[in-house]
């Protein structure tokens, strides 16, 4: 049976120069295990700042694991349902190239490796390993997004609080992206493609590696919120992520801050849409999201993070002038896990 599932880059939903082909893959180092079973909370008399403060020329490696499942159910004369899920593991190398007096940092970011697998409710499966890239033409097409991303670096500039100030040096990605296009895009089109790729793919990668932090001094029980807009179907969504410091503790010789996060949404927009004599009546989307992050007070970075987000969107569909209505329910589940490799 011909496969119809494709890998996609799942990096956006959150609670929140090319390498030589002959270069040997970098072995993963041991991951610091954060022991949260027999810990002794630390009481800090003075409040502190959460900032990214990395030495110039330092190098970090992160493992980012993203899980995504899209489920869809149609309520017709009978119930029809299906789903597609994928699990992707990325290894990123982050090098600090420049550090300004105000703490802003310029980073070089390289995706060294990608492993992925996908499957669907119809029994279709697909796997990818950047160290053993596919040779089959269909599989190469299905995994093109990953081939574009791996072994090509880009640069980003971030603030001490993790705000992404700029993303640049993405030209090599764009050349990969358009090399098999049916026609050569104009310069204006290339600029638009470059901007979309930087904002839609590369910037979310940086945001996953460097979570947003507050500018305020904090301590145990401190609360802060971050709001940001997104769009889901016909709705404009105002997302509010609320963070709280639960405790400060030691794991080995590492002093860590445990932060929990929750996500709420406020949707707005028209709930009814008509196209080609078909009427779509949307229910307001539902969402729930939780996350947990561990900030390293010694190294001044996020050492580990995990978040779970679920969106649900329902729509009633009918032919204009008819009473019979069908219902479709979409559920999007996403889990992102970030681990610093030592």
Count of separate structural domains: 1
Q: What top-tier CATH class fits best? A: Mainly Beta
From the 3D structure, determine the CATH topology. Answer: Lipovitellin-phosvitin complex, beta-sheet shell regions
Query: Which class do the helix and strand fractions yield?
Result: mainly beta
Number of DSSP-assigned strands: 14
Tell me the span between the first and last alpha carbons: 43 Å
Quick tags:
342 residues; mainly beta; Lipovitellin-phosvitin complex, beta-sheet shell regions; 14-stranded antiparallel β-sheet; 4 helices; globular; disordered N terminus
Describe the structure.
With 342 residues, the chain is mainly beta. The chain has a single domain, classed as Lipovitellin-phosvitin complex, beta-sheet shell regions (Roll). The protein has helices at residues 137-142, 144-149, 171-178, 187-209; strands spanning 59-75, 79-99, 105-120, 125-129, 153-158, 164-168, 223-232, 235-251, 254-268, 272-275, 278-282, 286-296, 301-319, 325-341. Strands 1, 2, 3, 4, 5, 6, 7, 8, 9, 10, 11, 12, 13 and 14 form a 14-stranded antiparallel beta sheet that branches. The longest helix has 23 residues, at 187-209. The radius of gyration is 22 Å and the shape is globular. The protein starts with 58 loop residues before the first strand and ends with a strand. The relative contact order is 0.20.
How would you summarize this macromolecular structure in one to three sentences?
Helices cover 13% and strands 49% of the residues. The chain has 342 residues and is mainly beta. A hairpin with a 2-residue loop joins strand 8 and strand 9 (254-268).
